[in-house]
Design a protein that fits this description.
Blueprint: E1 4-8, H1 10-20, E2 24-30, H2 36-48, E3 52-55, H3 57-63, E4 72-77, H4 85-89, E5 97-102, H5 107-120, E6 124-128, H6 137-142, E7 152-155, H7 158-167, E8 171-175, E9 192-197, H8 205-210, E10 213-215, H9 228-243
Parallel strand pairs: 2-3, 5-6, 5-9, 6-7, 8-9, 8-10
Antiparallel strand pairs: 1-4, 2-4
Helix pairs in contact: 1-2, 5-9
């Protein structure tokens, strides 16, 4: 197994330079690009002591396996920094705000959820090891740097991890369209974990049964549901609104 992996896109690579430059082995840059974003990246790479190699677009296309790379690819350490839930919770100075994803399989949705979690100030994103897409290059690119700022925690047994979260006095709320109450009626000022299900399927039965309560996002139009990242944003920002006294 290789000890490196590839990431691509300016946001993802600049964020890596800022937060964990030591993980970057080499950056590959399209020879044709000579714009401001390239100059900013070159300055950041020089400051961090990271080598930049100029290559043609065809090589980048092959490295990114057909994904949109924006003219830049980086080879980074394969191992993700291992963080546990206890590592995160033991250092908090405010009530916990967690986003738990029950089997999100689309890397674009995972990346968007990480970005939303960063924007809302969530302290971690928790996902199951199986039945999920994992933090691949596509998810990292879509996250626009949030993959390096939001702790990403994988767990072997999601239901057991939810019970451990509850033992830390964190209220676990599952998002479910059939719930009798909506999210605006849930007190979200204390320690809280929002649990959102996979695209289309929603929460799995055991996950649903483990939650302390279920809440729905009220829908006022013709569509029946929201994309998981949009739903995550609605839920997390309502928690922030309540905590700010709004």
């Amino acid at each position: 197994m290789s000890d490196t992996r590839l990431i691509h896109g300016f946001h993802a690579i600049v964020a890596k330079l800022r937060h964990s430059a030591d993980d970057i082995k080499e950056i590959y840059l399209a020879a044709a690009r000579q714009d401001g974003r390239v100059r900013d990246l070159l300055r950041a790479a020089e400051s961090a002591g990271v080598r930049v190699v100029t290559v043609d677009a065809a090589r980048l296309d092959g490295m990114a396996a057909g994904q949109s790379h924006q003219g830049v690819v980086a080879r980074v350490a394969a191992a993700q920094r291992h963080v546990t839930l206890d590592d995160v919770l033991d250092t908090l100075e405010e009530p916990a705000l967690l986003l738990v994803l029950d089997g999100v399989t689309d890397p674009h949705n995972l990346g968007a959820c990480l970005r939303v979690a960063d924007a809302a100030g969530a302290h971690a994103v928790v996902v199951p090891k199986d039945r999920a897409c994992g933090l691949n290059a596509t998810a990292i690119k879509v996250a626009s740097g949030a993959a390096d700022t939001v702790p990403y925690i994988t767990v072997t047994n999601l239901a057991r991890s939810l019970r451990e979260i509850q033992e830390r006095n964190i209220w676990v709320v599952g998002a479910a369209e059939e719930a009798s109450s909506d999210l605006y009626g849930v007190d979200q000022k204390g320690a809280l974990a929002w649990v959102l299900g996979a695209e289309g399927a929603g929460l799995r039965r055991l996950t649903r049964e483990t939650c302390d309560t279920l809440a729905r996002i009220p829908m006022h139009g013709s569509v029946a549901s929201l994309n998981v990242s949009v739903a995550a944003g609605v839920c997390l920002f309502e928690a922030r609104r309540q905590r700010s006294g709004g």
